[in-house]
Amino acid sequence: MTGIDAPANQEEQEEQEEQAEFDAALAPPTPAEVRERARIGPFRRLYRGLTAFDFVGRRRIWFGISALIIIIGMSALGIKGLNLGIDFKGGSTWTVPVLAPNPTPSQQSAVNAVSPYLSQPIVEILGGRTVQVQADLNGLSAKQRASITIKVISALAKLVHTGSSNVTTGFVGPSWGGQITQKALQALIAFFIAVVAYISLRFEPKMALAAFIAMLHDLAVTIGIYAIFGFQVTPDTVIAILTILGYSLYDTVVVFDRVRDNTKPFAAAGRMTYSAMVNLSMNQTLARSINTSMVAILPVLSVLLIGAQLLGATTLQNYGVALTVGLLSGAYSSIFIASPLLAILKERESKYVAIRKRLISKGERSVSFSAQDAATLSMSAPSARTGSSARTTGRSSARPSTESRPAAGASTVTPQSAPAIAPRARKQKKR
Question: How does pLDDT run across 277-299, given as a tens digit for each residue?
Answer without folding.
Answer: 888 888 888 888 888 888 888 88
